[in-house]
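User:
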Amino acid sequence: MTFLANALRRMLGRPSIPAGSAATTATAAPAGEGGEDGGFHFGRRGRKQDYRVDMDRVQKELTAGGIGRLDWLAREIVRSLKTGGHRSRNKGFSTEFSDFKPYTEGDDIRMLDWRLYARTEKFYVRKYEAETNLECLFLVDASRSMAWRWGKSLSKLEYAIVLTAALTLLMSKKQDRVGLLAFDGDDLKVIPPGSRRTQLGAMFAALENVKPAGGAILPRLLEHAPLVKPHRGRIVLCSDMEEEPDQVMPLFTELAGKGDEVILVHLLDKAEVELPYSDRVSLLADSENGRRWVVDMPHLKKRHRERIHGFRKEWVDLCHDNVIRYVPLDTSTPFTDAVRDIVEV
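Assistant: Predicted structure:
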């Protein structure tokens, strides 16, 4: 059951019209396989709206028999981005001075600053900032809620796969080490971070074969991440976060405490963010149980926006408290904008 369906049921409460009454016999047919509209339909006064990602060619590739040619999709996205270096928090030898720190036993005595000693009569060593290769692990939430879509738009899972492929290609061009962790049912797809020539192909192949599955996917991803990525760097999770915060935040906190930059890409469907119904719609029907409601659609949309704001804000606050970077996206966000929101380009 999706966030949209749950939210509507909570807001609407008890049905306004009994199921099967003569006044509601003209409602739309039941949802197709997968519940394209979250189990909800509307009466004769409105038309279903369709949200599409801006990149029409990407949309066409994705809907023509699954996610094929993922390498082409990633290159189309990266092609328009400017690439550049990023600064590492790791210190090394270079020509760019970073800071001083008090000398402690074990520090390299070659880094002692004698001029500063002459002024302070205390030992300090120089620190330098180096351009280094970053180690990044991508976590893709393949839970069933991520497979939900409205109409013919991209599902959240499809969007996450294409976005991860584009980020993988972009970071590999910078000689960064990239890896992947994704659960496909009981099948755990693990690609430890690396920069070998075959790494990119292995990442694309694994992403192309990710399928939605049931169960508690997200906690398992977070539990396995430290085992796959032993060195400090970056961890990027793409998920709709349809989990109880109490179940996953301790795992987030543990990851962030290891010194990694942790990024939560909170991805929702466009139809989950903005109710995809015309203001003229006055009747909603739940195809799962036959309940029907007479609604004031503008008022319902306002309440839903408030609910979405609260849902997002809960995760914003939790991420802020745990030094986790929060990136809110929906499936209508152009991929190039999404990439720029996540990494430096």
